[in-house]
């Protein structure tokens, strides 16, 4: 009996090790574009107030240091990189502490407060999506100079390109300026179509540059962010359902686009990574995931603060962020990021391995 159990254990271990080796062999890098959900500190090196390179941000990151990630610790792409057998953190492209040898296995061009729409990035003077593409082109040139054409092309072809963006277009642009240019120029459905068109062009550009494994991220239930809930006084500080409806509608349009491009572009492996439903499960049934607080954030009062308003001298900031779904009024905690990342790896990204 003992021998049978040992053999079974050995075979299970062998299968696990084979899977790890396969992942490492097939996924050489994680390459990231987007907003604060995946910015590891690029905004630290541009003139903007959309930063988080100060305490208490990063207090649960390795070394207890703020990095520019809008979290108490790691963000989703860090956990995804580690799950794929790569490094436990994806560095920011503009961070001078890293070079092309680091970026060869993972890099993020993301910028907090940006969006698909150039007018969204203009609000806080951050890096627009088109400029992230320029950074990516420069990265490819550096990669070829460092590794040579063949190996660099392999990383580009086999690496997972992740896109996580869009929330700011709605909450920091369209809805933030009633009577503003976008809200008078487009109905909400038309604006969704406008953004989806930009997303499609971006995917096509990546494909034209050699990317074949691409994950296009959807929107979370943005009406359930503490900032939105706590300004929803007439709704009893519940989730703003109209915002959640927009997120689901926009996600549906992205999903259809992904299906169409997979048929149209030869060799592409484009996946839609939808965080909406796992996020809603966490918010609706927090105890199943070990959370205690969903409507308030950990930082300061937990109602409105993010960025510089999330100051280290606030005595109201919680002591245990793992009990909270949200770190500040807009961004999830490290624990939430890990749960969402694990979900995406197991439900979506495994198809790219």
TrEMBL record:
Protein keywords: Signal
Pfam families, per database record: Lipase_GDSL
Region forming the signal peptide: 1-25
Domain of life: Eukaryota
Keyword flag Signal: yes
GO MF annotations in UniProt: hydrolase activity, acting on ester bonds
Family: Belongs to the 'GDSL' lipolytic enzyme family.
Descriptive protein name: GDSL esterase/lipase
Lineage of the species this protein comes from: Eukaryota, Viridiplantae, Streptophyta, Embryophyta, Tracheophyta
